[in-house]
Amino acid sequence: MELSKNKVAAKISWGEKCRTYDTMITAETGLVQNKMAARIRVAWKRLPSSVTKHAKMIYQRILASYLSSVSKQKRSDVTKQISLTAVVESEKLVNVILKSPAAIYKRNVALPVSLPIHSLNDQLPYNDVHNNLHYLLEKTTGPICRFERGQLTTFSNKRYENYMPDSCFQVLAQDCTSSLNFIVLLKKDSSNVMRSMQRLVEIGKDIDMRYNEERPTVTINGQEIARESLPYNKDSFKIELKNSNKLVLYAKEFGITELNFSNMEVELHILNDYRNRVCGLCGQANGDKRNDLRMPNGNLNDNPVSFVSSWTLPSQSCSDETGKRIQQLDKHSNSG
Question: Which portions of this protein are annotated as coiled-coil regions (predicted)?
């Protein structure tokens, strides 16, 4: 089985000084002969006699009768681990492989319903299973920030009203480490038309998404990309047009799992690795709502209005509803 980066492991130790017994539990996804697969494995060095006794009892009373009808192969060596692997053979067939300490069991399981493999593939951004598995894992477990109809929901699920002055960029989110891999900016013009700017610092790319005559357009470093030229798939990122009214950016190499842009909504998904290393209107993605309203200087602010202003970039054309210029409250620097 070829393993992907999608792997989670936990070690449990107990006994005297936590050294008498230990168990390692691993869950992972990957490929078996270029087919999607998942595996759970439990390995140990030593277990209490009570645990092994109950395990044998469960096997004899529950599993033995079922496994008697399953293809069985004795192992040449006895191992101290159990693994269960499921390989997707087709939309209606899954190959299940159980490896016990003494034997290997294999069985093809017919599913009562079809797995939506082909329809799912049509919605996935990459051409290979490895990257698509990584994308699915990150999108389902990674932090999400959403701005819709004036309300912003942070990575830690805190909600507040985001007042947007006309024609002035706000820092939605950015990598606040010294790497500064990405910056996502957001603004609206006097006609309430949304605009989003993504800067991929490492490769010097500015991706400008906006609505022009009720149609989404995208430019890269000032060069407009024709709609018929989408999807754009170069320079370690990809841009798609979906349903004729939404632009989607994929830039996992720079920390962005997915960014959805339409005239009504901006939704940003970042990698799990960027938890607690981002800043901006979306917060720090550390799971603590109390830390979300942190300004560029590192101070917390319980006032959403002044917090939003602190992440608003000053501009000569940027004014609030009273016509006064919006001034930056704090120097924009890495807050760590």
Answer: none
Count Cβ atoms below 10 Å from residue 108 Cβ, excluding itself.
12
Domain boundaries, the chain: 2-117, 142-310
| Element (DSSP H or E) covering residue 148 | strand 144-148
| pLDDT computed for residue 36 by the predictor | 76
Choose between 213 and 200: higher pLDDT: 200
Q: Determine contact, residues 296/286, Cβ cutoff 8 Å.
A: no
Q: Can you give the pTM of this predicted structure?
A: 0.64
Task: Compute the distance between CA of residue 242 and CA of residue 125 in angstroms, rounded to an integer.
Answer: 11
Instruction: Return d(Cα 82, Cα 55) in angstroms, integer.
Output: 12
What are the structure tokens assigned to 326, written together? 């919006």
CA 102 to chain centre: 38
Least Cα distance to 170 among 296, 308, 333, 262 occurs for: 308
Positive or negative torsion for Cα 31, 33, 36, 42? negative
Q: Could you please state the CATH topology (level 3) that the domain comprising 2-117 is classified under.
A: Lipovitellin-phosvitin complex; beta-sheet shell regions (2.20.90)
Q: Summarize the confidence of residues 167-171 as an average pLDDT.
A: 86
Q: How many helices (H) and strands (E) does the chain have?
A: 5, 22
